[in-house]
Amino acid sequence: MPDKGWIDIGAPELTFDDPAEAQTWIDENKDEMGDEYDTDKLEVRLKEKPQDGPDGDIKSDDSEHKGDPKHEDTSLDDEEDKRIAAAKRAGEKAAREQHAKDLETNSQNCKEAADKAEEARDAASNSQSLEENLQEANKAVAAAKEAKQLADPRNKEDRDNAKRAAEAAREAIDEAASEAASDNPDNLDEIMDELEDLDSQVTELEQPKKWEPKVSQCQGHAKQAQDLAEKASEEYADDDLDDAAGHAEDSYDEAKKARESCDLDKVRDRQAAIDAAKAAEDALRDSENLIDDAEEKIGEMMEQQNDPDLLNPPAKWGIWSIDESDFVPGAEYNSEQEASDAIDSMYGNQSKYQPRLLPDPAKEAAEKAADEGEIDPDNPGEEEGFCCGFEEEMDRLSEGKEPCIVTNLEGITTDPDAIEQFMAFVQLLGIPLPPIKELPIKDYVFMHLHPKGIEFGDNYHEDDEEGDPNDWSVVDVPAWIPEDFGPGFEVDVVEDDHLDAVVTSEARAPISELIPNAVWSLKLKKGNLSCYEEPTPEEVDSLLGQESKPTLSKVISDAKKQPVKSNVGKVKLSKWDPNQEVMVNWETGEVKQFTRTELLDGSAGPEWEATRFITLPELGLQVVAAIPGAIEILKSLNFTDYSEVSPVTLQINNPTPEISDYMGRLADPLIVNDSGNQITLEY
User: Fold this and answer.
1) What gap in Å lies between CA 595 and CA 579, rounded to an integer?
2) Taking Cα atoms as reference points, which of 563, 575, 584, 583 lies closest to residue 648?
3) For residue 493, which of 98, 596, 632, 666 sits 20 to 30 Å off, Cα-Cα?
């Protein structure tokens, strides 16, 4: 049992899982504790003896609030309740250990299934009869199915083994088809139909198995039912009878949906369906006189609460291998008949396999815990608490909600929005940086951890002729994401695709103080997260359709090492007044500025179109998005192969990729046509 940490001096009632956690809590909350505690006397000490129960833990079993004294469970008033709560936590721990073992076992069994598929393929190749070929082809397909079922799509080794098994099964089918064609038996058509069916099964197995967290529809509907019932109760208390009745009926509908979508294998689903029915029943009884069929609906909700399948779910059946003296991995059925049919389908007979009831993993774990002295075998309450904790935690883990941890910040992103944000960020920092197409994840995260903003002075007037338009400065602004974000930080995945994953977590102070439940999000690579298998460089290149390029880190580093040039922090401003509107005449090509007064009195006719400034610190330029601005850029780059076809048309021959990029940034109001060998700009 690990030592427990507690704040002995100043706040002895505060208890934590370990001393480090206690100290962290002090550090994070010290400034806010002055009214309640003498913060100068807070001191962390180790407990010398068990406190308040067999395991020394007086907190709630709600892991979300562990270590938070505000959520200590004060309901455990007697020793029996404390022992049951401790047993429940022991069950949760056993479930996590079992889940890890299951993943390891499944991975090993997946490999063995792939080996079986290859053995069947080899046997088919060496067989002397068509009958043997067909038998081996069926064995190979059955083994491939087993491998696919056992494979964790987040595990590269599992994916490779499932692929290996499918390839072996297809080769076995091809061998059988070839043998059948050469033998030309009387029932050739029947045999070919069977092989075609096997082939279609393999085709299905070859489809990638995508990992997705399993969202419980049942629990979602149950939550809706309870929320609607609570709303109906409030409305009934306020004499809003019609609304109360309507929401009571809606609660009933959601409770029914919860039962229909209930996964009987999940204890949390079963309990959710029961709780939903109870909430709906209470709401219906409040509005019984206002609902025509209220009595019937109340009866349905009572039946749902007492549904035998919800209270005592049916046992599961498996396939017992007589030769192996063990269950076939991954084989699980709702009835003996289903298991028997599966044996006939996969193995052809029941001479070496038979249907058997699967053992209850929660009860097996409870028996082991009793043998090891973790729970009292003579106390039914402790056994029930242990099993409840075990089943609930296994539910959670099976839903794919195990923590997703940031493991590294390596790799690059090509997301245009991220790159645009970063370019604006480095411009504020005064770093000369050429246009980029790739951004290191480290730099992307750094930008979010150290955001910058612009603070305007009292004399700044953007749209006024008076005042100083240069009266502004770059300032630090509070970050939404926590300071400790990085490897080891736990996040939630809200969206993903073939390479990227959008992660989120609760926003931290100060934004969380202003906006309750505020969240932030970042777009990372799957290779940055523990819940995905990191793709190889070859896989990344294949998915991107391009070869990997050097990261930006070196570019930034080299830029910082360069001697300060005239363009660093000394951008050559255009002759244009930023307090006036810059416009271009799309008929003549003339570029001119207008004051607000001139615009209001109509001095700029319909042939004049507004344009914009573009700041290019890497070139030391600030240009207007018009043909004169394009010519300024070309001259700065010492590029001469261009011509003004007309006052409103510029033609550039044999442009470099760099020039193509700059000209593309001038689009709107310019129309830019880039054929690769020639660029035409016109209004």
Assistant:
1) 8
2) 584
3) 98
